[in-house]
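Postdoc handover notes: sequence design on the structure in folder B. Input tokens:
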């Protein structure tokens, strides 16, 4: 039986009023669980996709495009030393990559966000050239030109300035600094646009996105309330979990237990006892520690980045028009 599930008082050093903070499972175990969940999400995505499309070739192409896109994000986050980087497929919507890092650089964020769509756009453009040079190639019922079209549209469309697309995240983090009323207004406008798009196209599953944003707004509001209660105790939240004093861990833990319904019935101490939910509690404690956005992009660099961003949106459309594909899309 693990220490977290034993419900026994934690042993303390002599003359130490607070025991050691909870240490999560070994990182290798965590990565194994992440890998298992990622594989399970892929299997689920494939199953749901097949039920909807009934075309193996098309489904394989879509999964390949999404996987290459997210792999770009994944490798960039690994390069910038994000921890617990995970890759999950979401039926109907695509996939996402997540990771943890306490200090987030705007420059690194821009590189990570572009690392997803840009390779896919370049691959699509290259496939168009190959298709043109070979006079047209096919795989089953799919033409190489159609595959190139999917590569370009899915990746270029992801750069549109609508949250939570890559373009929306780029706008929010680099140009709106992710804080303040302007950022909140942008998220609300994005929600309104998605609602309009869902009604206009009758793809009502899209309504899950603004619903998720509303949940996020509520969670942020609750976070701010808890943050005020914790800082009122004189606790410094501008610190990493590793450097968090044991005393502060148990004090933050008690505030969370008293204010979150999911931890109802957990003993806040003293005596200080690990609960069977301790791993989740420790994750919530870590979430309360402040994440710092390093604003390291100058105004000139933002202008250059904006030009590159616009080019990544416009050039593929011009190329599609050149290959007489754009009119078919808009019809």
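Designed sequence:
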């Amino acid at each position: 039986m693990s220490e977290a599930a034993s419900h026994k008082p934690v042993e303390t050093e002599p003359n130490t009023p607070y025991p050691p903070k909870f240490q999560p499972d070994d990182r290798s175990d965590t990565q194994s669980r992440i890998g298992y969940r990622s594989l399970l999400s892929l299997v689920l995505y494939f199953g749901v996709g097949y039920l909807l499309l009934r075309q193996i070739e098309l489904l394989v192409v879509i999964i390949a495009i999404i996987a290459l896109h997210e792999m770009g994000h994944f490798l960039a986050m690994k390069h910038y030393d994000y921890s617990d980087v995970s890759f999950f497929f979401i039926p109907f919507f695509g996939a996402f990559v997540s990771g943890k890092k306490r200090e987030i650089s705007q420059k690194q964020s821009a590189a990570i966000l572009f690392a997803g769509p840009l390779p896919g756009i370049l691959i699509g453009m290259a496939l168009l050239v190959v298709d043109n040079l070979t006079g047209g190639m096919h795989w089953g019922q799919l033409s190489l030109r159609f595959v190139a079209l999917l590569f370009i549209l899915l990746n270029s469309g992801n750069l549109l300035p609508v949250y939570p697309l890559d373009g929306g995240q780029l706008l929010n983090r680099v140009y709106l600094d992710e804080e303040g009323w302007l950022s909140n207004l942008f998220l609300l406008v994005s929600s309104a646009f998605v609602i309009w798009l869902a009604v206009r196209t009758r793809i009502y599953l899209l309504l899950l996105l603004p619903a998720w944003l509303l949940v996020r707004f509520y969670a942020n509001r609750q976070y701010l309330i808890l943050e005020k209660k914790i800082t009122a105790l004189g606790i410094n939240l501008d610190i990493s979990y590793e450097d968090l004093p044991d005393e502060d861990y148990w004090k933050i833990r008690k505030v969370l237990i008293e204010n979150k319904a999911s931890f109802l019935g957990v003993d806040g101490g003293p005596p200080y006892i690990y609960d069977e939910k301790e791993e989740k509690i420790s994750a919530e404690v870590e979430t309360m520690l402040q994440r710092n956005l390093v604003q390291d992009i100058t105004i000139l660099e933002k202008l250059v980045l904006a030009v590159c961003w616009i080019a990544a949106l416009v050039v593929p459309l011009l190329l599609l028009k050149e290959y007489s594909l754009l009119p078919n899309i808009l019809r």
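Context for whoever picks this up: The chain has 13 helices and six strands. Don't rerun without checking with the PI first.
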